[in-house]
Amino acid sequence: MDFRLSEEQEALRESVRDFAREVVAPAIAEHYEQHTFPYEIIRQMGKMGLFGLPFAEEHGGMGGDYFALCLALEELARVDSSVAITLEAAVSLGAMPIYRFGTDEQKARWLPKLLSGEALAGFGLTEPGTGSDAGGTQTRAVLEGDEWVINGSKAFITNSGTDITSLVTVTAVTGTRPDGSKELSTIIVPSGTPGFTVAPGYSKVGWTASDTHELTFDDCRVPAANLLGERGRGFAQFLRILDEGRIAIAALAVGLAQGCVDESIKYAKERQAFGQPIGAYQAIQFKIADMEMKAHTARLAYYDAAARMLAGEPFKRQAAIAKLHASTIAVDNAREATQIHGGYGFMNEYPVARFWRDSKILEIGEGTSEVQRMVIARDLGM
Ligand SMILES: Cc1cc2nc3c(=O)[nH]c(=O)nc-3n(C[C@H](O)[C@H](O)[C@H](O)COP(=O)(O)OP(=O)(O)OC[C@H]3O[C@@H](n4cnc5c(N)ncnc54)[C@H](O)[C@@H]3O)c2cc1C
Question: Which cofactor does it need (predicted)?
Fold first, then answer.
């Protein structure tokens, strides 16, 4: 058992860390405040190859693996989560369904620009009336001749409305199975298709420099060839995508938790109270020690889940554990980092305020903490 990174992995981590500190950190506060999408940062991340990390070179990828993506996400989120979630959603939710389930034609048409970061794709699963219970999907797609006609709406879809969004994959009911249950399928809807409307961006508590919209489909027609993979495989497809995505979200949460440690150490050494730096008080040292312990153990949990996935072993339970633990400790660390910063921690100009606002969604997105517990309990035979 060896948890040390290879030279190549270490080099990737270093280069993303430098990029986060030198390029993301100086520019992101303004985007966060103004709720604007950081196109220039995303363009540079594309040039670095981050959007192609876990994909084969024959499709325009970097020939790395999912763990490489996780390392990059951790380093980005250590500085900023809006940029990190944009990459996470673009790769593991946007491009991955086409990479895993698409036809050769679909891959050739869509992947090159998605993997270079010149285009983004959204993953349209959640609906206004149903999130955790994805089987409750109401959006319908009916095959009329050689076209799917889609009607319904989707809620909270990341990367669905940027200037460079090229498509959204939409989960829809396409029929009824012999046992009476819904037949779910996934359909590719290109941006700009008539009948596909993107609502203005939500006003969010956190991740304010990321792109999130409600989408509506009103007699939206796309070619029959836009079906992703087999008809009726929609449920299995999104379960696989979400299982993997949980490891990536865990890595992002670890990054945020570690960023809280970084900022807290810096502040505790500078801030004076009662004649000495607050970092000299054991109460503050213990908070920081606990924060480091939590970030470290959550990192081991996502390393383990990623290692199992890459080895082709079952990883559903470990991915849910990693996501549940990492998101919980990210919220803990953000709260404690804010506490260590006192009143300044409540001021938006301090990174810890951003960490605090960005942490809560980690316990909700890509499966709530309750859903992770359901997955773990089910895997334990309950
Ligand atoms: C910023 C942001 C970005 C997002 N990006 C995307 C995206 O790109 N694509 C996408 O498809 N979705 C996206 N989502 C949606 C996200 O995945 C859902 O919000 C999440 O899955 C929860 O669904 P819900 O909001 O409908 O909550 P609900 O499912 O309504 O849950 C409400 C509460 O009830 C609890 N609950 C539900 N069922 C049970 C049960 N059986 N037992 C115990 N408790 C239960 C939940 O845990 C939660 O606490 C995004 C959300 C946000 C906020």
Answer: FAD
